[in-house]
Amino acid sequence: MQSAAIDAAYYAAMEIPSALAHSVAEETPRNAQDKNGAKAGNGGPLVLPTSPSKGTNGKLGMTGSNPLADEHLLGDWAGIRTGLQDMGISLSAQYLLHGVYNLNGGTDSGFRQAGQASLGATFDLDRMIGVKKAVIQLLILNRNGDNLSTDKRLFLLQPAQGIYGRGEVWRLTQFWYRQTIGKVEYKIGRVSLSEDFATAPCIFENGTFCGTAPGNILGYYWYNSPVSEWGARVRLYDGRKGYFQLGLYEVNPSNLRDDKGFNLSFKGCTGVMIPIEKAWAVRLGGDPRRAGLYKIGAWYDTSRATDLVRDVDGGMAALSGRPLEKKRGRYGAYAAFRQQIVAPDAEGAGGFNMFLNAVQGDRRTAPLLNKFAVGAFYSGLIPGRPTDEIGLAIGRTRSNGRLARMHAAWNEMARDNVPIRRSEYAAELDYIIYPLPGLTLRPNLQLVVHPAGRSDRKSIVIAGFSALTSF
């Protein structure tokens, strides 16, 4: 098994859960250098970055690299792990912690922490029973802890703790079958939409930069992990140039309930999500160590959805008192770019990469209309610590302008003072350390400007800390 499969644990524990790194490895940039320099084949899955700024291999991206990040805290389990892998069974166990302290804002300052435990297994059916290029993957997740934004009445549009949410329960996040035949890969089963489309790592702690962008602003029908749904997707690879994929997923609000963590029923399904995505893989100057992945996508949900503002007669429901209009269809588009700009040296220092994520929902139904984030990572800033990384990201989450106009009209009519919400801006500075095998530490500082999209509120500064342990 590639070291990238282990290193993917950090992102696996976030919004791209995976017991093996396949889906993460093809989506997430990293700045380090693989020692074996293997060459990419002409077909099959792309192998792309699995960490912010550590190394590349000779495939299509930056996998593998930092041995401290690639290993496990408990090592090889006295040979058990290797023995199971030789049989085709790969096990994973991780715990991720997000701790935050608001230095100002809210009712008062205070510390809150949220955690996520994950247990996974991947079964290589080629090794086990001779089914070529086929795997079955199982993953269950448990989230726990408290939300700083609500407890301290910060009411942020994006949470300071990216992994908080979806109840303090165990959930079946993955139970699917995937096989590659030539240049075609298909996958079917119990899946999380975010592991296949608009996939992005949760390298930072603030939700503005953490995980799959559509699910961050449209989580009432685009479900990021740990929630899963029945779904299938087909992906066509174009050698080393990229891929095109199409998916079909159920939209079932019942899956969000705390008592439906292992729900396998279609009961409560409201429609079908149909996403498409095109990805291009590039190598700057033809250098495999400077790989990048550029993705654009769109989706359509066939569910009936309520208009935010418009009533059944075409007026503003808040003013008329008439029922809101309800029509079929919700949609949107996104872009996710990752690029290694400068390759690191043999020790891992000097690597520099950038990312950009953007998403746009539909104006009729989306309270949060769009989100944009850009960031960069650099390795080896401090002399003598070549594998440490520093990351900086900035982003904006925008409320739907139709809501702002409705609130303004209501205030004028009722002589009320409902807050007008527009855009919330966030920035985060992280320092990433790998002190022990299987342990990643990420202290950070977050700045939120116009909290909740309100220009009348003071900026909030939050000190954060993230830690991932891979056992």
From TrEMBL:
Composition skew (Basic and acidic residues), residue ranges: 24-37
Record region (Disordered): 24-60
One Pfam family from the record: OprB
GO biological process: carbohydrate transport
A Gene Ontology molecular function term of the record: porin activity
Cellular component, GO annotation: membrane
Protein name: Carbohydrate porin
Organism: Sphingomonas oleivorans
